[in-house]
Amino acid sequence: MTMMDEKDCLMLCYIAEEHSLKRAADRLYITQPALTYRLNQMEKEFGVPIIVRGNRGTQLTMEGERLLQYAKRNLRELTELKEAVIHLSGEVKGTLRLGISSYYGHYRLPPILKSFKDIYPDVQFSVTCGLSAEIYEMLRGDEIHLGVIRNDYPWSEGKHLLHEEHICVISKEAVALEQLPELPLIRYKDPGNPQLSGHMYSSFNESVQAWWSERFGRPPRVSMEVDSYETCKEMVRHGLGYSIVPEIFVSPKDELYAFHLIRQNGDPVLRRTWMLYKNKSSRLMAVERFVEWMLQT
């Protein structure tokens, strides 16, 4: 039976992701003719077409998709084998595959990685930053060892609360709580889908909506929706309305008025940041040490 090596598997994955032979070749650090030659060889060996070119770029055929499934499984098993061998040595080394929510990656992650690297110089990092919903799916699909995400997702394995922050109303001028329904709201719009693979999570907007429903008997007067907290803040700074954002995005130099959202039972409305991982990943030495480091930081 024809076998594919690691480079062949990567080639199929990159073609599927890039829809371009040139970009796939660039990621493999080979020329496009070299990639095309190997692809032609594989098509002859398997006796089926693997790609088709069209208006949407290069796509995998049905047979190519089946080979892609094998390639992904093969790469995952090879990675797990390498990690298991490293673990047997008892050394803290290897590549940590991390998925980090964008804002945490920007504001908090760099010094954490730097200090960890100083202690464990043989550990390398493969970091993916993105929406929490995307990171969650990557973790469920074993694409990463550990995820740092915001909001509350269903998770029954390794889970640690890293951070809680208040959600607050911000405005350019002082406003009273009872005035809010009359004022223009610059609303943050979740860019992700709140339902993934049949699982629901508590989103930022759901938390705000629950607070609003307790306080007011009518909807807010939304003047605009934006998909960035920083954009919300800039709109407020220019006097275009008020907004509701996590406290981390507001600093004294912004010169904005802010007050925390408080539920009627006295509980603050908070946004939580969680560290999630599968139990099997925590058995790897590098993952175990990184989890400990995150909890100490």
From TrEMBL:
<dbReference type="InterPro" id="IPR000847">
    <property type="entry name" value="LysR_HTH_N"/>
</dbReference>
<keyword id="KW-0805">Transcription regulation</keyword>
<dbReference type="Pfam" id="PF03466">
    <property type="entry name" value="LysR_substrate"/>
</dbReference>
<keyword id="KW-0238">DNA-binding</keyword>
<dbReference type="InterPro" id="IPR036388">
    <property type="entry name" value="WH-like_DNA-bd_sf"/>
</dbReference>
<dbReference type="Pfam" id="PF00126">
    <property type="entry name" value="HTH_1"/>
</dbReference>
<dbReference type="InterPro" id="IPR005119">
    <property type="entry name" value="LysR_subst-bd"/>
</dbReference>
<feature type="domain" description="HTH lysR-type">
    <location>
        <begin position="4"/>
        <end position="61"/>
    </location>
</feature>
<dbReference type="GO" id="GO:0003700">
    <property type="term" value="F:DNA-binding transcription factor activity"/>
</dbReference>
<dbReference type="GO" id="GO:0000976">
    <property type="term" value="F:transcription cis-regulatory region binding"/>
</dbReference>
<dbReference type="InterPro" id="IPR036390">
    <property type="entry name" value="WH_DNA-bd_sf"/>
</dbReference>
<keyword id="KW-0804">Transcription</keyword>
<protein>
    <submittedName>
        <fullName>LysR family transcriptional regulator</fullName>
    </submittedName>
</protein>
<comment type="similarity">
    <text>Belongs to the LysR transcriptional regulatory family.</text>
</comment>
